[in-house]
Amino acid sequence: MTGRSIDSPALTYAPLRGRALVRVAGEDARGYLQGLVTNDIDKVSATSAIYAALLTPQGKYLHDFFVVDRDGALWLDCDGARIEDLLRRLRMYRLRAKVEIDVLEPAHQVHALFGDGALAAAGVSPRPGGCRDFDGGVVFTDPRLAEVGARAILPVGDAAALDGLGFRAGAEADYEALRLRLGLPQSGLDMVPDKSLLLECGFDELHGVDFEKGCYVGQEVTARMKHRNLVRKRILPVLICGEAPPPGTPIVRAGIEVGELRSSHDGIGLALLKLDYAQAAAGTEQVPLTAGSATLTPEKPQWARF
Q1: Among residues of the chain, what percentage have pLDDT more than 90?
Q2: Which of 95, 149, 182, 241 has its CA 20 to 30 A from that of 261?
Q3: Which of 173, 106, 183 is nearest to 144 (CA)?
Q4: Quick check: 52 pLDDT over 70?
Q5: How do beta strands 12-15 and 168-169 pair?
Q6: CATH class of the structural domain 232-306
Q7: 3-state DSSP call for residue 70?
Q8: In angstroms, how far is CA 258 from the centroid of its own chain?
Q9: Nearest to 70 by CA among 23, 14, 30, 31
């Protein structure tokens, strides 16, 4: 199971219309989030963004988001479809902390910036999370993986400023294709709330977990899986030969269910697979993986270290 080089498209920006922004502010904001999320909030600054998640006490995935610093407040770039649940859970833990938690009015739009030379064109560091102010908003290298490009949070209607950097307007489907080829799981599509485990989604390799920080919700289970090498399944890219079945379709090898298909687009998808079977299917044993009427070939992302 080997990695595959990814061809980069021309410089492109695409609005991510399913994203929303939560603002966490107040004198206790950083300490409050530090005790909740998987990454180190102290790493967030005017020049650095992070990727993080909120878990159940049992270590199951609930929400993931990007965190940036805007004028002393923390903005969470999150899945808009589940923002009410995120707000409810954040407020549940607030207790007596001096923290304000609210949704930013839809005055800002999240954009993906990608293509050959995207980081240089955007003027951000190749370091994951490298961040700078831009046109009344912020642009930052994707904290998960620099190869996916950058993200920009800009005032609505100001995307034309990206034209001046050499980007052309594209569709969200262009970004979706790149995400799948790189093997990056997405909220709600590939990571299932109350079910997925972070390390099965590659969160540690995608810079979303800090194993040196203090306690957070779900920390004990996550650390145990890491240090005892208990990860037996992974979200992996799969090449799909035939008609892609719907998300949730079981994946079968020699009559044994070995995983489940998640999101897919244009002949490639992501699947949760038992690693032993995925490695065998990608090796010399000619026993294919199937989902519905389609045949699947798993591939290991270049960034994955298992």
Answers
A1: 86
A2: 149
A3: 183
A4: yes
A5: parallel
A6: mainly beta
A7: strand
A8: 24
A9: 23
Fold of 12-182: Gyrase A; domain 2 (3.30.1360)
Q: Which tokens hold the place of 256?
A: 């044994």
Q: How confident is the model at residue 66 (pLDDT cuts 50, 70, 90)?
A: very high
- Burial class, 189, CB count within 10 angstroms (exposed 0-12 / middle 13-18 / buried 19+): middle
What does the domain layout of the chain look like in residue ranges? Answer: 12-182, 232-306
User: Which of 108, 107, 112, 90 has its CA nearest to residue 99?
Assistant: 90
Give the pLDDT confidence score for residue 105 in this predicted structure: 81
Query: What spatial distance separates the first Cα and last Cα of the chain, rounded to whole Å?
Result: 11
- Assess whether the region 12-182 and the region 232-306 belong to the same CATH fold: no
The residues, ordered by sequence, that sit 6+ positions from 64 with a Cβ below 8 Å of its Cβ are: 51, 52, 53, 54, 78, 79, 187, 191, 203, 208
Mean pLDDT of the residues in the chain: 93
Sheet of strand 137-141, all strands in order from the earlier edge strand to the far edge: 131-134, 137-141, 150-155, 108-114, 12-15, 168-169
Secondary structure of residue 42 in the 3-state scheme: helix
Q: Tell me the two tokens of residue 202.
A: 């590659």
Q: Tokens 């999240």 map to which residue?
A: 110
